[in-house]
Design goal:
Blueprint lengths: L3 H15 L1 H17 L11 H16 L3 H9 L1 H5 L11 H7 L1
């Protein structure tokens, strides 16, 4: 019969191979930061420039396959709730920069 340590090792290896472990760690980190964040003071709305900077950072993370780090950035609620949110940016920022 397998020991608890062996079962933990097999479970960890399986989750790593499926790419789930990194996602779970990133999600837990994001939730911990959200829980620790002081919500009593509302954040000021993001300026259009800051929204673009955040989107550029997200693009960089996703382009370089830092999908778990990007998921932590995206999970920060204010990025999606802002008016003119990331979803409303027509072209990727790198594309916009090249066109200039």
């Amino acid at each position: 019969m397998a020991t608890v340590a062996e079962l933990k090792a097999v479970l960890k290896d399986t989750l790593e191979k499926r790419g789930v472990l990194g996602h779970l760690k990133a999600r837990i980190r994001a939730e911990v930061f959200n829980a620790l964040n002081d919500e009593s003071e509302p954040r000021p709305p993001l300026s259009h420039e800051n929204l673009l900077i955040n989107e550029l950072i997200r693009e960089y993370l996703e382009f370089n396959k830092y999908k778990y780090t990007a998921s932590v950035l995206i999970s920060d609620d204010h990025l999606r709730k802002e008016k003119g949110s990331i979803n409303n940016i027509e072209d990727p920022l790198v594309s916009q920069a090249v066109k200039r």
